[in-house]
């Protein structure tokens, strides 16, 4: 509640058109979260609610809880999606389509990898490389980029998917904005899409460092390993 009030004050408005939860909070029950968000909607401070980088299982649970408890449900999901990060095609996009959720994908250019700026054997001089250097040095991703560049030069357009409602872009110049907007009215032909599927198979990630959200059950050692004493006894 406090976060929304602060956002309204900073934005100098009386309501938010869309308020999204950024990644699941394992310490808070989803029913409690939906209850608070429903109160915000009923008070007129928020028009619609959504999720960001939620696993498919968490989305399904939230929709089930909303229906069973008579709470407002999530209407959008904001996942990472690009040619080098296609894992959401397996579950997240189909689930979003099933529940009629809008999908606002982020990092459609793979954090800059798909711009052609970062090449195999070249020195990376971006501020992001200091934050996630492994992302720009993964050989599998860089090899995929090398194969995709000829296709990009031929088409000059992004990949599309029927489950994607819109893409979040982050241009730093008007030239970059114009280039991004140019792809909005054109569709890639099957020949190019088939070649993309060969380079980066549907539902896969081009490298091991693509996970935008790692659940505590995976990232927390104590949640995926029994105590040493129990392991020794076994």
TrEMBL record:
The keyword Oxidoreductase is assigned to this record: yes
PANTHER family for the chain: NAD(P)-LINKED OXIDOREDUCTASE SUPERFAMILY PROTEIN, NADH-SPECIFIC METHYLGLYOXAL REDUCTASE-RELATED
Span of domain NADP-dependent oxidoreductase: 2-200
Organism: Nonomuraea maritima
A cellular component term, taken from the record's GO annotations: cytosol
Protein's UniProt name: Aldo/keto reductase family protein
Region (Disordered): 200-234
UniProt superkingdom: Bacteria
């Amino acid at each position: 509640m406090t976060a929304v009030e602060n956002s309204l004050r900073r934005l100098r408005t009386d309501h938010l058109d869309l308020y999204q939860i950024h990644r699941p909070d394992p310490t808070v029950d989803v029913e409690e979260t939906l209850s608070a968000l429903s109160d915000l909607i009923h008070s007129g401070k928020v028009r619609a609610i959504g999720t960001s980088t939620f696993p498919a299982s968490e989305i399904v649970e939230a929709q089930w809880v909303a229906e069973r408890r008579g709470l407002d449900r999530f209407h959008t999901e904001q996942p990472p999606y690009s040619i080098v990060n296609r894992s959401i095609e397996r579950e997240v996009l189909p689930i979003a389509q099933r529940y009629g959720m809008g999908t606002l994908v982020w990092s459609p250019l793979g954090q800059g990898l798909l711009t052609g700026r970062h090449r195999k054997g070249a020195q990376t001089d971006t501020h992001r490389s200091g934050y996630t250097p492994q992302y720009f040095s993964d050989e599998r991703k860089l090899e995929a980029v090398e194969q995709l560049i000829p296709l990009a030069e031929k088409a000059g357009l992004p990949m599309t998917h029927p489950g994607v409602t819109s893409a979040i872009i982050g241009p730093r110049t008007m030239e970059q904005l114009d280039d991004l907007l140019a792809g909005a009215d054109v569709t890639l032909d099957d020949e190019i899409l088939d070649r993309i599927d060969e380079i980066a198979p549907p539902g896969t990630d081009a490298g091991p460092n693509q996970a935008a959200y790692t659940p505590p059950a995976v990232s927390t050692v104590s949640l995926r390993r029994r105590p040493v004493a129990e392991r020794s006894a076994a």
